[in-house]
Amino acid sequence: MISPSKATSRVLLALLLTLTGTPAVAANAAARTEARRAFERGTRLYDQARYAEAATAFEEAYGRVPNGVVLYNLGQCYEKLGALDKALSSYREYLRLVPKAQDREGVQNLIANLETRLEATRRPLVTVASEPSGAQVLLDGQARGQTPWSGPVGVGRHELELTLPDHLSLKRGLEVRAGEPIQLQLALTPTPAVATGPVSVVTEEAPSRGRIWTWVAAGATGAATAGAVLLGSMARADARELTRRPHEGAEVQRLHDSAQGKSRTANVLYGVAGVAAAAGVTLFFVEGSF
């Protein structure tokens, strides 16, 4: 994204072009005057971080006297407002109307970055891990691979299913929201053994020692999963706050670092939950044999 200082320079450049203008501007003095006033109003509003009002003023200026550079300023406003579709449209139209723009390469990079962000908003990344791993992943009935699996998924309601030989099928609904990646750590349940042949009669049963450590592992799994979900939600909240409105440089860095730190910790806790779940399954059978 172009820095505020460069954006201000662009605003000033557009104002200069509006004043000295094209033949279309010179041909209509009244329209030129109204366009200049709208542009100056948009410039003041942009400097005050009133981006929605600034966009309206720039649209008025462009409507009265079409000027390609004004579209750049519109793109800046739309990007600040999170209207990525409109920002892309403005930047593309700017390059079309000003084909020899000196900053063409920089604007093309801006466009590429916005396209990536827009795609991530429309198709957030979904990551699915399981214990044990190697389970078949089906999304809306279509095979997507084996766990651990990760891929972009369209926004909306989906049906997720995991299948693994000798384990019960696991099904769950999946609600994918724009701009919110999802990480899942799921535990598969072994298929209950079916008794065959003659039934043995046990005349004396050894005292049961219980499954104390199994429950400890289960508790650790639940605690780690809950912590991971909480931290993941907090990381997404920081990320949304970062993109929802403009911030000072230090605040941007703080929110970025906070989101990354919480996301990394959440991933570690998901791993801990997976290990604890695996240990719980093992202990379930080991303790049951005593």
Tell me what the structure shows:
This protein is an alpha+beta fold and 290 residues long. It has three domains: 118 residues, Serine Threonine Protein Phosphatase 5, Tetratricopeptide repeat; 70 residues, Immunoglobulin-like, CATH 2.60.40.1120; 83 residues. It is built from nine helices and seven strands. The strands form two sheets. The chain has a four-stranded antiparallel sheet with strand order 3-2-5-6, with no helix packed on it. The chain is elongated. The protein starts with a helix and ends with a helix. The N terminus is likely disordered.
How are the SSEs ordered, and which strands pair?
Layout: H1 4-20, H2 23-26, H3 29-47, H4 51-64, H5 68-81, H6 84-97, H7 104-122, E1 125-131, E2 136-139, E3 142-146, E4 149-152, E5 156-163, E6 170-176, E7 182-187, H8 212-244, H9 249-288
Parallel strand pairs: 1-7
Antiparallel strand pairs: 1-4, 2-3, 2-5, 5-6
Helix pairs in contact: 1-3, 1-5, 3-4, 4-5, 5-6, 6-7, 8-9
Largest sheet strand order:
3-2-5-6
Helix content: 55-70%
Query: Which of globular, elongated, flat, extended, rod-shaped describes the shape?
Result: elongated
The total strand number stands at: 7
CATH level-four homologous superfamily name of the largest domain = Tetratricopeptide repeat domain
Low-confidence stretches: 1-9, 11-26, 202-208
Q: Which structural class is indicated by helix and strand composition? A: alpha+beta
Tell me the fraction of residues in β-strands, as a range.
Answer: 5-15%
Q: Architecture of the largest domain, CATH level 2?
A: Alpha Horseshoe
On the 0 to 100 scale, the average pLDDT is: 78
Tell me the CATH topology of the largest domain. Answer: Serine Threonine Protein Phosphatase 5, Tetratricopeptide repeat
- The value of Rg in angstroms is 29 Å
Number of domains: 3
| Distance, first to last CA | 63 Å
- CATH class label of the largest domain: Mainly Alpha
Mind summarizing the main beta sheet? 4 strands, antiparallel
- Helix count, per DSSP? 9
The helix-strand sequence is: HHHHHHHEEEEEEEHH
